[in-house]
Amino acid sequence: DAAEPPPTMADTPPSGVFAAELDFATGHPAALSDAELVDAVVGYEKLAAWAAARQAAVLAEFAARPADHPSVPAGEVRQWAADEIALATTVSRGSAHARLARAVRLDAVLRPTRDLLETGGLDGSRARLICDRVEHLDDDLAAAVQERVLARAPGQTWAQLDAALRRAILAVDTDGAAARHRSAKQARRVDVFPGEDGMATLWARMPAPDAAASFEWLTRLARGMGATDPRTLDQRRTDLLVAAVTGKLVLRDPNTDPAEMTAALPVTPGKPLITVIVPYSTLTGADDEPCELAGYGPIPAHLARDIATDSVWRRLLVDPASGALLDYGRTVYRPPAGLADFVRGRDVTCRTPGCRRAAATCELDHVTPWSTGGPTDEANLCTACTTHHHMKEHPGWQVVLHHDRRVEWITPTGHRYWTQPHDYRE
Question: Residue 114's closest CA among 43, 51, 53, 69?
Fold first, then answer.
């Protein structure tokens, strides 16, 4: 048998010894190959996670110990631990308090999360995310959420883990999730924040389906302006939003005289504006399984049923073994272009690792370019947002759509990453 290759800087378990080895190996970055530089980045990421886990253990011990100052009664727990840590680490008291609270929970019910952090399987930001998302849950519910998400967490981005956590919380705490949504909905508002260079941010807090529908409708309008418009899609969306809320934009019936029409028309008029994946049992009220708003993540069952009352629904045939889409039903009021709908239904989001842009606002990309003989069929198409569609065209990047519809991305340094078709079992 061939000997196993030696471990790289990316797959060596983090430790104090490894820190010294990594420091020595990267003393002269210019002498490293591109692949070695990427491996070194991963190595330092794991080392930082290891250090964060060790720091959390120390913080938990500090928070749990009774004060040892002579002016404090014996046995009394430190009341000002956060203030001391804040001073020592030059952060606000609130930040120090939050850090201590996370450390205490990572030392108890969330200990499996800390163990994974210590091995480099999670970085500090994702471990903090787990702590923050279950902060309002009791220990039993927090443990149940942790058990649901932790196995997949090492292979997920922050956004993907966030969606998984929200989905798990909805699944284990249905009543609490519904109550929290009703409370949060009461806080919907629009605000404006000043920026630099004469710019500002118009900010709106609203229910997730409304936000997703608004963004996709702006995208349709922006694309409807035509390829000759010199503005980017982001610029068009912004200008359209301003025109709409200031009363300058008026949409007209596309069947009227073109001379009387505004230049901004949606590229695909009519519903659906958003894509919500709902199990049939949830749609009928038999259960309250979490549902999925494409490009956003999990939403409560009651919110999905509210959307269903004024929506067009499509039947999706799914392989129960793999969760992959097999057939896109055509029993709809306005049958869409079958191929485009099938690919978007199969992918649900942009097929670049870590990207959650909804397929409805993505482009259909020929994996093998049309100009070099690539066919326009399901086996050669995948959804890609504009940014990642352009990235794919840059020298050194390769994309492969496999027979099982996994998409493989090969970076210029030779590292490989995969995305799967959407698993409708989730």
Answer: 53
